[in-house]
Design goal:
heterodimer; A: mainly beta; six-stranded mixed beta sheet; five-stranded antiparallel beta sheet; B: mainly beta; 11 strands; 0% helix; 57% strand
Chain lengths: 113, 112
């Protein structure tokens, strides 16, 4: 089942603006990850935040995690046309031999030049 | 460095025909391997995962099966394809002691 649910489903912004995507989940997690998918391609790992972390930065990416609300957000600052892609959150429960991830349905981000 | 390959990139098959999709990983040993399916505009559905040679776990009952004949080879198969098997199939691997997964380029399957 899909545990992570992204919001909004689609987002369209102008180049240079910030883009914020949200993810909600239902069960306890060890970590939460964000991935990017360009159209027709495989997913690329962007950033991971552990359950004991509240905020993490990587370049123009900022991720927050609120385990009490079971939610996370991904902020992309100073967006570029090349940031146009689908973004997925994925939760890792921290258990199971294969550490299966559960992916959300994604946010389609369009950055207009 | 590690790389992951999937082939074919695209496939058009008639209903009732067999299927074999292959995934191989280079530059690592004993990876966890995963098969996902993605419907158009949707998220990923985990189909199978494997923690070692010959060890396959299925997440959902379906018309598909998986095998891992070698440490870095993962195969997705079907004896008779259904229209509902159409989709984008992604293979991924995860190394020991890390949490993130690394994905292949995917196979676009259209069943007609």
């Amino acid at each position: 089942s899909q545990q992570g649910e992204e919001d909004p489903q689609a987002l369209s912004i102008q180049e240079g603006e910030n883009a914020t995507m949200n993810c909600s989940y239902k069960t306890s997690i060890n970590n939460l990850q964000w991935y990017r998918q360009n159209s027709g391609r495989g997913l690329v790992h962007l950033i991971l935040i552990r359950s004991n972390e509240r905020e993490k930065h990587s370049g123009r990416l900022r991720v927050t995690l609120d385990t009490s609300k079971k939610s996370s957000s991904l902020l992309i600052t100073a967006s570029r046309a090349a940031d146009t892609a689908s973004y997925f959150c994925a939760t890792d429960p921290g258990s199971g031999s294969a550490r299966q991830l559960t992916f959300g349905s994604g946010t389609q981000l369009t950055v207009l030049p | 460095s590690q790389t992951i390959h999937q082939w074919p990139a695209t496939l058009v098959q008639p209903v009732g025909s067999p299927l074999s999709l292959e995934c191989t990983v280079e530059g690592t040993s004993n990876p966890n391997l995963y098969w996902y399916r993605q419907a158009a505009g949707r998220g990923l559905q985990l189909l199978f995962y494997s923690v070692g040679i010959g060890q396959i776990s299925s997440e959902v009952p379906q018309n598909l099966s998986a095998s891992r004949p070698q440490d870095r080879q993962f195969i997705l198969s079907s004896k008779k394809l259904l229209l509902s098997d159409s989709g984008f199939y992604l293979c991924a691997w995860r190394g020991t002691g890390v949490y993130e997964q690394y994905f292949g380029p995917g196979t676009r399957l259209t069943v007609t």
